[in-house]
Amino acid sequence: MHPEIEYVEFDANNTDFEFIKKYDTVLMNAFIDVLQNGDVVLDKVLKNANKVILHRQKIAQKTKLEIRDSYGGKTYGFSFGYEEFQNILSKNNFAITHYFKWNNDSYSFLLVRQ
């Protein structure tokens, strides 16, 4: 629908995410929460980003990976444990500057490099 927009195709498991350095803000909507290794991918993204909008990410007591129904098939359901999420942010010098709590322990965050 919008050929004027630049789209970058990538495999989240096989990239270092260096290409995001040229962007001011990275929007991750329904991305980390459907990966088997969301913690690893978020860490790689934060190494290269300056601002990240992480939309509708589950945060729970402990990091958890489950298989759930999705659009007639199965997908991963990745939830960060609060402590692990904070550790990844600290390791990459990021802070939560704004957040919105949805239902069921799901949040949207604006993460900014300090």
Description of the structure:
The chain has about 110 residues and is α/β, with parallel strands linked by helices. The protein contains two helices and six strands. Strands 1, 2, 3, 4, 5 and 6 form a six-stranded mixed β-sheet that branches. Strand 1, helix 1 and strand 2 form a beta-alpha-beta unit. Helix 1 (about 40-50) packs parallel to helix 2. It is globular and about 35 Å long.
Summarize the structure.
By secondary structure, the protein is of the alpha/beta class. The chain is built from two helices and six strands, in the order E-H-E-E-E-H-E-E.
- What is the helix tally? 2
Assign an overall shape: globular
pLDDT averaged over residues: 94
Radius of gyration: 14 Å
CA-to-CA gap between the ends? 36 Å
- The helix-strand sequence is EHEEEHEE
Strand content: 35-45%
Helix content range: 10-25%
Number of strands: 6
List keywords for this structure.
six-stranded mixed beta sheet; 18% helix; 2 helices; alpha/beta; 114 residues
